[in-house]
Design goal:
Layout lengths: L3 E4 L1 H10 L4 E7 L5 H13 L2 E5 L1 H7 L7 E5 L7 H8 L7 E6 L4 H14 L3 E5 L8 H7 L8 E4 L2 H10 L3 E5 L5 E2 L9 E6 L7 H6 L2 E4 L11 H17 L1
Parallel strand pairs: 2-3, 5-6, 5-10, 6-7, 8-10, 8-11, 9-11
Antiparallel strand pairs: 1-4, 2-4
Helix pairs in contact: 1-2, 5-6, 5-9
Length: about 240
């Protein structure tokens, strides 16, 4: 079985806190001693995880990214699909907030969206199985632990999944630059799935047609659009603001 690489202080700490049984081996760079590493070592000891000291050169060779002196080799996260999504929907509260990523293929953007989703209290992140970013080492690192906190579902047919969510009373709200309604003028307080499209292309036609409503982020300057992870953060926290009033 090929193991996942989880690296970086926040990602490894969250993994050991939330799912220590996934961790097979833990590598710590030689000479690094500080409170953050000591916490990781304490969590590893509590979980019975084998820790191996490694030179920075060897760790650099193992990891394609900024590892911060810490690498965990872990059993892969299970691939979650339609069945698991609707099992979760049976368990969440009456006003769930979901994030749908339609065609976001960059793992950096996926990781950033997961991190923001966790901060905003999103119950689940949903994407189509095809033409979507994988939950790989890069996405996990950028997510800073959120990959283990927010479930990521890859569904077979996104339009059908959105329809099934509508049948459960979830309002499907898509984002599009040409939309008339602003995120600041739209009631976003009910059960809601926020749909973010890919950079440049936006949402696919079938996804757009499934939306109950389209909204936009008003742009005051020369730039016509935002990076998808930035736009996700802006919109999610407007939803959080409205729900907290």
């Amino acid at each position: 079985m090929k193991l996942d690489q989880v690296f970086g202080i926040h990602a490894v700490t969250t993994l050991l806190n939330r799912d220590p049984e996934r961790v097979k081996r833990l590598f710590i760079v030689q000479g690094r001693v500080d409170p953050k590493v000591e916490k990781i070592l304490a969590l590893a000891a509590q979980a019975g995880v084998h820790v191996e000291s490694i030179s920075k050169h060897r760790l650099d060779e193992r990891v394609d990214g900024v590892h911060q002196g810490v690498l965990a080799e872990a059993k892969p996260l299970p691939i979650l699909g339609d069945k698991e999504l609707f099992k979760l929907m049976d368990e969440v509260d009456q006003t769930p907030l979901l994030l749908v990523l339609d065609g976001v293929t960059d793992p950096h953007n996926l990781g950033a969206c997961l991190r923001t989703a966790d901060a905003a209290g999103v119950a689940a992140v949903i994407a189509p199985r095809d033409k979507s970013a994988p939950l790989n080492a890069t996405a996990i690192k950028v997510a800073c632990g959120a990959a283990d906190a927010v479930p990521y579902f890859q569904v077979t047919n996104l339009a059908r999944t959105l329809n099934q969510l509508q049948e459960r009373g979830v309002w499907i709200v898509g984002t599009a630059g040409e939309a008339k309604g602003s995120i600041y003028q739209t009631d976003l307080t009910g059960p809601l799935a926020l749909v973010m499209g890919a950079e440049g292309k936006g949402m696919r036609r079938l996804t757009r047609e499934q939306c109950d409503l389209l909204i936009k982020i008003p742009m005051a300057g020369e730039v016509s659009s935002l990076n998808v992870s930035v736009a996700t953060g802006v919109t999610l926290f407007e939803i959080v603001r409205q729900r907290s009033n």
